[in-house]
Amino acid sequence: MLNNFQETKQLFFKDSNYSEVSQKAIWNLYINFISEVEIESNKDLYYFELEEINKCNKKLKNVKEGTLNLINAFIKKYLEWSIKYYKVQKSFKLEIENKIDNSWYISKLDFYNLCEKLMNRVDSQFILPLLLIRYGITGKQMIYLRTIKWNNINFETNRVTMYDENNEMILSIPVDFQFLKWIDNLKDLEIKRHNNTNIDNFYIMQESEYKNKIINYNTVNSRIYYACKSVGTVRIPPYSLETSAKVDYLYKLSQYNVPITGKFIEEKLLKDWYKKESFSVGATYKLKNLYDDWIKDEGFNAECTITYIIKDDKDLKITNTKSDNVKNISNKKAVICLTTKKEFESTIKAGEFYKCDPSSITKCCKGKVKTCGNLNGGMRLTWMYLEDYNKNKE
Questions:
Q1: What CATH number matches the domain at 108-236, 3.40.50.150, 1.20.1250.20, 1.10.443.10, 1.10.287.70?
Q2: pLDDT of 344-355, one tens digit each?
Q3: pTM for this model (two decimals)
């Protein structure tokens, strides 16, 4: 039984030139991301204001770029249709188009906060696929992550490596101490759960019976879905996790004055990690564009507290690896906590002091979120760029 808002969308589809297949795809996106907000606010999409738009953005936080583009195209057409059909003001159309965005990047801090919550709610087998994907440990295609074994993780070189039947390396990805700590703890849980200490040659992801067989990829997807559902969040797309890992690595290399070009991404990251002879130009430059956009928006503030071991990257000719001497990126800005009036030279220092996510402090300064972090008494912290704060005082 359709509600009034859904019936209106059906009228729109009848007047539109969407194919039957496109209508079905867009209808599913509408039901998953917009319809619930309409019901909660008792407003049709064409009457949405900032509050409703923010609710939609929260649901759309981790969707793929292509999905977001499809939703935005639908919104644009629907609002144009609404203007003619309901005589709605044009300003509503512009308001929504300018506010719906795609926050695909998932910081390490946000990710491990999620993992901490999951530890009290789900089995380790539901956390493992998220952990592997967040570090890009997926193989040539996402489906290959099912074949990762415990003995592919090398605690001495800080890398995850895989070899094919001819003993040729097909995967080599750097990991950090956080990953190794978590993987070690999860392995201990698997040993206790199955009462078997000799699992080094076993696949990391297993069926409940622990038969050491490659599981179905649909099972992996289901585990990701139910893990996210258990903590009340929407399913995190594997694409967002994997791309976040690649962007982290590129950012770390950029701190050593390595130019992040399309050619470099293909040669040093994609080929080095996944050992493929070539990658499509589209895949390479899509990652390059995502990285460039991320750097402009929040790059410096996101991951520079994460330490990568890059022992195998000798050809980079790194002469100085001490973080104190690393050249600062130009978008480093001083901030002030409006709650306490304490000033910091960067969001990194602020995040370290109040134990909160630097990238979320940036979003707070830009007005994307209201608060970030809290005092011991529970009072939420608000932030502002120090430059903007001083201008307002004048």
A1: 1.10.443.10
A2: 988 878 877 887
A3: 0.54
